[in-house]
Design goal:
There is one protein chain. The protein is an alpha/beta fold. The chain has one domain: 3-Layer(aba) Sandwich (Rossmann fold), CATH 3.40.50.620. The chain contains 6 helices and 11 strands. It has a 9-stranded mixed sheet, with helices on both faces. The chain has a two-stranded antiparallel ribbon with strand order 2-3. Helix 2 crosses helix 5 and helix 3 packs across helix 4. The longest helix is centred in the first third of the chain and has 15 residues. The chain starts with a strand and ends with a helix.
């Protein structure tokens, strides 16, 4: 079985985000970029399935500008067999990403697609669900445990009421949650091996998809600074303070 894994590059989660002076976006020049944490978890799960003999090949996919090579080499060093780089200078929204993945699925014919449940730059949490709908295959989102056997995936997922276990026939789409696994550290020999692993490069336009850019951000603003806390003596004073702030 072949596993296709989404592997998006985002601003590193340790970086303090700064909004551009013209409010058109966030500052990325000179900022550390790294793999989306949920995508690292997705890749780790795919690698573990390969190590169990369930899969034979793990292919990572990233959609973005021409300078993604180092990012993809990182995923190859982690253990992926090969990478696909869909080049575009445009910002890609979830529906466009799902349509691009569908084209790659038609070409690669994977038995399983694993994506992070969301990317930490837009927190959309939509691509996996959209892809499953376009592909007309089962989906199992927010996975905290995955077992594959007899052509089916048994997935334990986190929901508001606790844990839910569902069964999905393969091929299917799985999106990963934080508690699914802990991604491995990359060793120097693996970094050296990754330099010889193949990266297939193609233009997004060659896939012939409708980008479907229906949502346009008009302005970005930083969160308001928190004001200092206020000590109150009793409930009556608390209610009065909330009324003064227009919260009641």
């Amino acid at each position: 079985m072949k596993i296709l894994v989404g592997y998006k590059r985002v601003v590193d989660y340790n970086v303090r985000i700064q909004v551009k002076p013209d409010a058109t976006g966030v500052v990325t020049d000179g900022v550390k970029l790294s793999a989306n944490p949920f995508d690292d978890i997705a890749l780790e799960e795919a690698l573990r399935l390969r190590e169990k003999g369930i899969a034979e090949e793990v292919v990572i996919v990233s959609i973005g500008p021409a300078d993604l090579t180092a990012h993809l080499r990182n995923g190859l060093a982690m253990g992926a067999n090969r990478a696909i780089h869909v080049q575009t200078a445009d910002a890609i929204q979830p529906l466009a990403a799902a349509r691009a993945f569908l084209k790659l699925i038609e070409k690669e014919q994977p038995g399983l697609v694993i994506l992070g449940k969301q990317a930490i730059d837009d927190d959309a949490n939509q691509t996996g669900q959209m892809l499953a709908a376009l592909w007309d295959r089962p989906q199992a989102t927010f996975a905290s445990k995955v077992d594959i056997a007899d052509g089916k995936a048994v997935v334990t997922r986190e929901v508001d009421a606790g844990l839910e276990t569902i069964e999905a026939e393969l091929p299917a789409v799985i999106t990963t949650d934080l508690r699914l696994n802990e991604p491995r550290f990359i060793k120097l020999p693996d970094i050296m091996k990754a330099k010889t692993k193949p990266i297939d490069v193609m233009e997004l336009a060659s896939l012939g998809i409708d980008l479907g850019h229906k949502i346009h951000a008009t302005r970005f603003t930083a969160p308001a600074k928190r004001s200092k806390g206020v000590m109150v003596k009793d409930a009556a004073e608390l209610v009065a303070a909330l009324k003064h702030k227009g919260l009641l």
